[in-house]
Structures are given as structure tokens and as C-alpha cells.
Write a structure and sequence with these properties.
The protein is built from 1 helix and 17 strands. By secondary structure, it is mostly beta strands. The chain has one domain. It has a 17-stranded mixed sheet that branches. Strand 3 and strand 4 form a beta hairpin.
Amino acid sequence: MIRLHYLSPCYLCLLLLAPGLAAATSETPPQPAWKVLEFEEQAFWATAKSRVEVTLPSDKNQHLQFRASSSVVGNSEQVVLNVDPANGQAHTRYRLSRGKDQRLKTFEYQADHIVRERRNPVADPNTPPEQWPVASRKEIAYPPGARDNVVTDAYVLLLLADRLQAGPEESAKVIIHTDLNFYEVNMTRGNGIPVEVDYQVTGGEKVSGKLDTRAVALQISPLGDLAEKPDFSLLGLHGEIILFFDRESGLPLQVRGTAPRIGPMEINLKAVTLREPPA
């Protein structure tokens, strides 16, 4: 069971943070040791689950692919992302939402703009979402400041924060695109705090106890004027977000932030599938 602890407003003070942005690199960074992460959050009468899987580039697909799914109280979301393996820049995004309303949104990240299509379901429930009729299509212009930075999806922050905490740089910046909005996210790494864990390694042991961590703090701010109401979230959390990584394994153990209608809370790692080491 996930433990929910209310956090003091000054919990960012637990980190030793340093200024500066990460330098760009043309080399492809090492890929994460994890293949699948599973998180679960329980609060009052609601249970939320999130699963993120990363597939490395292959001969057929030169992109890094994210497959993410989440569900809570009858609502679910499936996301498929193809991103640049070097820096996380999004190339395409597929987002299927189900619940009271159903819709499929696809995004193509082009040099000058983003092409967004929305498809709505038809009467026949057996019709694949990809065959639903297009309800709208629009071109979304990048706001000033976005073109010179990586533009990607919030799920990719799990990968980028993983790289930052393991590397030599103290901080980095990325632009997160949601639906019509853009956000600047400044990531800064520092010392974490001991974190209580209880997760299962697929095909391996159960890990429990208190572990020392490194931390990556995310400071999120709108980039330009928002086109619609604020909608940034990572695993359902918003506000000031901190990710805690095991100092030894590098695994993301916990994410802290603010949940709608609940307040400050934490989400803990429930299960992980590790990647096979290179031959």
C-alpha cells in the first residue's frame, strides 16, 4: 500500500541545489537501467495507477519509445511517445483517453509547429480508435523560447531526471507540451533524503526498508500565455515536484508534489522491470 505523507511547505530546503543549465551534447547518453516502472497511489476512496515502459531504439525504429498508461476512478489514459534517444525531443505522440468522454489525440512535432488531430468515437464500440473520424485538426505554433530547447511530454521527465541525477551537470531545462499549453521546466539535482521503499523487482526480490537518495527538483512555469487552463502534471502531481532516486541503483523511488483535491503527497515505486545488460 502506498503511504501518503503531508509535506511541509519548505521541503525543497532539504535539497542542496546549484544554479546553471546543462550543456548540450551530441553524444547519446546511457539509457536507463529500468525498462518498466509501476507506481500506485491510494488516497481515501480512490486508487490511481501508472505504468511507464521504455523501449530502446532498434534497426526498425531509431526513436526511443515510451508507452504509458494510467487509471483512476473509471478514467484511463494511454500514451505512446516516440522521442529522440539523445535528448528526449518528441517526434510523435498518441494519447487515448477513456471515461465519461472518449477521444484520441495525435501530435506530430515538426520544425515550425505541432500538428494536432482529435478523433471522436463512433457508435460501433469495436471500431479501433485509429479509425474514428477526425473531429478537428490544427497547427500549434511554438511559443518564443521553445524552438531553441527540447520540447517533449511530461512522462519523458522520468528519463531526463534519471540522466541528470546520474551525470555531472547540476541542472537542465526542457519545455513540456501538454495539449495546447507549454511549460518551462528547470531541473536541478541535489542531495536527497532517506526514503522508505517497498517494491518488487520483476523476476527478482522484493526491496523494502530505508534507502539513501539523490534528488531532482522540478520548477515548472508557463512558457508564454497559456491557451487554456493550467494542465501540467507528472503522474497526476503538479506544483513543486521532487523525484528521489536510489543512490546505488539509480531507480526512481518516489515522486513528491501536489495532488488535486488532496494536497501535498508522495507516490512510491511499486514494481520495476530491469533492462537486460548489454551483451
